[in-house]
Amino acid sequence: MVTPALAATTFSFSPSSISIRAGDIYNLKVIVHPHGVKNYTVMAQIQYPADLLEIKTFNFGNGWTALSQSGYDLIDNKNGLLIKTAGYPGGISDSVIFGTISFAAKKAGDGVIRANGDSLAFDATSQNVFVGPLAQTVVLKAVQQAPAPAPEASPLGEKKAAALEPQAVPTFKEATLPAPEITPEPRREIIPGSKEKQALFDIAIEPEAEKSQKNQTATIALVACVGLVVSGAVGCFVYKRRRPRLK
Known about the structure:
Elements: E1 10-14, E2 17-20, E3 25-33, E4 39-47, E5 53-60, E6 65-66, E7 74-76, E8 81-92, E9 96-105, E10 111-115, E11 120-122, E12 138-142, H1 155-164, H2 208-242
Parallel strand pairs: 2-12
Antiparallel strand pairs: 1-3, 3-9, 4-8, 4-10, 4-11, 5-9, 6-8, 7-8, 10-12
């Protein structure tokens, strides 16, 4: 029995691309596509970059029966090769998850995961209907570790920092002011009998003899004035007493 050219089994991966970072774990599903011909037994051989990835576990999908014989079951992290074989009772005619690979990333980098040409898929007559290599691959894109951004300076933070910093206390040198020059006012001589008027708040300096003479003169004048006033008053009173009264 010859299998039609269009009836060929292929594999695919999900997701179709991964961005890796050192230390992270990634799960990759392997899917079988029978393309119209029932598959009863499948052997998947998958190559991966061993310098970037390491397989931790592989789990078959639902309904598959694993074949663990030597040469049909292998995980080789040194050479980057996975071989897994299983049968599906009753066969599959639609796309089915064959299994899930759990990878650990060793470091960031670029690489490809693909199924090699030694993979197998048998139909009911034990004829290999697998077509390889796998058309779909997984490209491992390196994740660049971006440096942590430097904290942006805040104007408010700068003001707070400046306020917290000890401020230098300015020192002032005490200035020595020159003493004001006092110019003594020239002493004015007062000439006795002079009509010159003295300035306000000026103090006349006279000999004691002149002061005494002036005081005596003022006293005599005052007594004379009082005497005249008294004499006039007495004279007026006497005149009124002697004037005849009119009848």
